[in-house]
Amino acid sequence: MATTMTPGAAPATAIPAAGHPARHHAAGTARDLLLSVLAPASWGTTYVVTSELLPDHRPMLAATMRALPAGLILLAFVRRLPKGGWWWKTAVLGTLNFGAFFPLLFFAAYRLPGGVASTLGSVQPLLVAGFSILVLRQRPHAAVLGAAVVGTGGVALMTLTAKARLDPLGVLAMLVATALMALAVVLGRKWGRPEGATPMVLATWQLVFGGLVLLPMTLVSEGLPDTLTAKNIAGFAYIGVVGTAVAYTLWFRGIERLAPTSLSLLSLANPMVATIAGFVVLDQSLTVPQAAGFALALGALVTGQMLVARRRAL
Q: What are the extents of the domains in the chain?
């Protein structure tokens, strides 16, 4: 779900990646944008998969099964561990992206309608803008921030209804989760990656660390389920392979190649896909305001990318 960034006064190309210079383009190539948007698009299916396929009311189990198996499978493939300072950096990013973010996300997904969770998550570009100012010393352009605000408004139109159930704990969990992922995006941009490590390697390290943090917490708080149905296994396999291993590899690649704001605006694809999934899979109706909100969010996403490209071309 997850879940983005914002550019500042100084061009992002002036920020060297720790240990490995990031390869920046004017605003990322079209291929970079298309590959990166697949990550939030896949996260948009998390809500429907959680409600339809996963065991009921097991957020810690869902978080652990999403992170640890995918991380261990990738680790067997990449066969590389962090060195030096990348141990503590992996611990920080793994906790933010997975160890803390995943349980909060699933906690919110179990307690909130997908539309409410999507709307709360769509504020991520604004949070990334704030963290970019604090961490990267980059000031977001007013027009790009405006596109982010319009996108959030479009998501609200698209997903919120008069019957939307606002569980206070679910709302708090989703806001905290969104803030943690926004901070992780900015720190990932600041630190880059070590020499020779690919985005898949970074995803592997963080997934394993986050999963190992989650495992004992899950055993203590929820324990292991007595049985898992074929439907449960299919759900865990989907969120582990598609929504995690593949999605986060593409997302970390995007952090390296795209400007923070450009990547953050792509997160609007998450609620857009969540709305489509509800319409197609759950037979939910699509009202005129929802259709207008979808168009508004899509327009904000496209306009925001154009503004970032124009600003970086100057």
A: 12-313
Rounded to whole angstroms, the Cα distance separating 196 from 42 reads 27
Q: Give 168-208 as a DSSP string.
A: HHHHHHHHHHHHHHHHHHHHHHHH---TT--HHHHHHHHHH
72-86, 97-111, 223-237: least confidently modelled range: 97-111
Classify residue 191 as exposed, middle or buried by CB count within 10 Å of its CB (0-12, 13-18, 19+): buried
Q: Please report the pLDDT score of residue 266 as a whole number.
A: 82
Q: Is the CB of residue 199 less than 8 Å from the CB of residue 256?
A: yes
Q: Provide, rounded to the nearest whole percent, the portion of the chain with pLDDT above 90.
A: 32
Q: What is the mean pLDDT of residues 47-58?
A: 86
State the Cα–Cα distance between residues 258 and 308, nearest whole angstrom: 10
Dist CA 257 CA 26 (whole Å): 10
- pLDDT above 80 for 188: yes
pLDDT at 9: 30
Helix, strand, coil percent values for the chain (each to nearest 5): 75, 0, 25
Give the tokens for residue 75: 């680790």
Separation CA 97–CA 3 (nearest Å):
10
- Which residues does 53 contact at the CB level (< 8 Å), separation at least 6? 231, 232, 234, 235, 238
pLDDT at residue 259, as a whole number = 74
Give the span between the Cα atoms of 197 and 295, in whole angstroms. Answer: 39
Cα 34 from Cα 207, distance rounded (Å):
23
Report the pLDDT value the prediction gives residue 97, as an integer from 0 to 100.
92
